């Protein structure tokens, strides 16, 4: 069990000193670095990389996928968005649909939402007891440890967006032609439960960090959110012995 995190004490905007123009220039360098790492990862086939993106509605998960991984070769990267489980998925253990989408060696797999939805939604709606929720946390810890023991590098991100920014983005979805397709009436209910979801996330950070720690990313400014995710991915992957395999000629 990790230290209790209070999201109200963590800012949703970047600290002073970050300049959007400078960040965008640095992003160009980081995108090239990530591309180079991915080429080595794909060739080496020793490690797999699993990127978990969690966050409330309108926190910018789709935008992160589009921008952070813009320089990655599609042949070595896949994206899976987890929505409400369908009838077949409900007939299996909650990790069944997650397990079959985990990356093979050499691949980067991005989860846009993930197994944590099977804690979040039941907890907010009251569909599972607290005992069952904690049991799922323990299962997730064991599941993630099993992956990391098998050379899967897991990086977990929570996109920390304010309630005010959520409401603004929801209005944008209603009025912007390019975003209107994202608008769903269910979003209104979910955003109205901002406080409830925040408390469940705090419990997740406390109980589901045994194998893999969480990174909390200020997400009110999209340009900073994308930069922070990209920078930490490059820094973390650089710490692993990912390189081209030695080929005897």
Explain this structure to me?
The chain is an alpha/beta fold. The protein has a single domain, classed as Rossmann fold (3-Layer(aba) Sandwich). The chain has 10 helices and 5 strands, in the order αβαβααβααβαααβα. A 5-stranded parallel β-sheet has the order 2-3-1-4-5, with helices on both faces. The longest helix has 25 residues. The chain is globular. The protein starts with 19 loop residues before the first helix and ends in an 11-residue tail after the last helix.
Give helix and strand order, one letter per element, not per position.
HEHEHHEHHEHHHEH
Mean of residue pLDDT values: 94
Question: Helix/strand-derived class?
Answer: alpha/beta
Mind telling me the CATH class? Alpha Beta
Count, helices = 10
Amount of beta strand? 5-15%
Quaternary status = single chain
The coarse overall form would be globular
CATH topology: Rossmann fold
Alpha carbon gyration radius: 18 Å
Q: In which range does the helix fraction lie?
A: 40-55%
The number of strands is 5
Alpha-carbon distance between the two ends? 50 Å
Can I get a quick summary?
By secondary structure, the chain is an alpha/beta fold. The chain has helices at 20-44, 61-68, 87-90, 96-99, 117-125, 130-149, 163-175, 185-192, 194-207, 222-238, and strands at 48-55, 77-81, 108-112, 152-160, 214-218.
Features:
249 residues, alpha/beta, Rossmann fold, 13% strand, 49% helix, single chain
Layout of helices and strands:
Elements: H1 20-44, E1 48-55, H2 61-68, E2 77-81, H3 87-90, H4 96-99, E3 108-112, H5 117-125, H6 130-149, E4 152-160, H7 163-175, H8 185-192, H9 194-207, E5 214-218, H10 222-238
Parallel strand pairs: 1-3, 1-4, 2-3, 4-5
Helix pairs in contact: 1-10, 2-10, 5-6, 5-9
